[in-house]
């Protein structure tokens, strides 16, 4: 099992969610986060005073998937979240040791 | 009858002309004038609470949002009471050159039957009260986010008594020395805006900058509040300017028209200047520009024509943009919400240009009594502004320095960092 963590632009969330549902992903955890990458922050201007905002709002998706589905999930997120402009985000794939469904106690693949 | 503002002055002249040809009619209550002045009074109150309160509230940081609203609200209450006790009398109670005296203290003689021109004196007194409310409230913008609340109350009371009421008498009161020189100030460019702007600048200098200014970003926390407030100010200003005719007549109608035009022109001017110099037209910019236009047309509202109003608006939009974005940074004072940059500078521009665009040749309604030519009128206007600047600067400085010794002007560093909402009022604007 793998945990796919994706940081994407907030307005791409709906498209990514729909695309993931189509490839068979059954659960996604979404968190509103802030951060910066190569995009750096952006500048806001109030009455002539410039403020550099370091941390931009992003959305973080956590998706637990079976090993066989990882490639497809990553490709799907890349396709759905891409605008081609700077700041589209990043995807991290981490090993996932265990998954447990709390209601039933099922573990491993059964729990996904 | 108080000799007050363009409208009444003109009607007095009309009465004098009648007197020459026959017996003058006794002053009678005009229901139309009275209805309009009741409305105008409510509109001017709307400018402070909620207009100015929201305009300022959006521009401070979230931890101080309640503090500026509280300051506007408390000033409204305190100024109203002091106005009734003696402020109205000092401004309009007699014929001295420098102050009106105490003949109308405690509102003596203010019966339901008492008239001021064609409206009940109670309405005139309350209309003027709303001006006495908004003027000290404007100053809040200069020292936002760092002044002690008790010091603010003391400052409001003393400043209203020693600065606002006398200056109002100079310009608007019977026998006032600036009125006698022919100064044109229809709705308070000098009395309200220059007065408040300069007091604000002095306060900003005496209190010193907010901790972290200008290195720490202090962007507005909620511009939607600010735009709502600016919009309410724009609407309320019709009461401010068109109400200053003190009648439902042609002067009031023209005051309304020129108010709209100058404000629109100033909003576009600030927006355009910002667009050119920074690449984007900001919402705070267009709202600030509108307020600058409202300020600048105020003294000219009874005398400028429509095209003069457009010119005044453009000048105010550009001038105040420069003051708020460049001058402030160049000189380094922390006029937090641009009380001086918008009201001081806008009032100054408006007061001087009033002398230009009152001229009938430029579409105006006429120069002041006994004034010959635009040059002389501008000189008279400059005298009014200079006298007000000098007096309010010195008096405000003395009041602030005295208060600093007795009660202390500034909150502690810890209170300032915590935010005035919690530190001074034990409340928060947002519980999310």
Commentary on this structure:
The complex is a heterodimer of chains A (112) and B (432). Chain A has 2 helices and 6 strands; from the N terminus they run βαββββαβ. Chain A is of the alpha+beta class and 112 residues long. Chain A has one domain: Alpha-Beta Plaits. In chain A, a hairpin with a 2-residue loop joins strand 3 and strand 4 (49-53). Chain A is elongated and about 60 Å long. Chain B has 432 residues and is an all-alpha fold. In chain B, 68% of the residues lie in helices and 1% in strands. Chain B contains 15 helices and 2 strands. Chain B has helices spanning 5-21, 31-59, 65-92, 121-139, 149-172, 177-180, 189-207, 223-242, 250-278, 283-297, 306-331, 339-357, 374-406, 413-418, 420-425, and strands at 115-116, 119-120. A two-stranded antiparallel sheet of chain B has the order 1-2. In chain B, strand 1 and strand 2 form a beta hairpin. In chain B, helix 5 runs antiparallel to helix 7, helix 9 packs antiparallel against helix 10 and helix 12 runs antiparallel to helix 13 (374-406). The radius of gyration of chain B is 21 Å and the shape is globular. At the A-B interface, strand 3 and strand 4 of A face helix 10 and helix 11 of B.
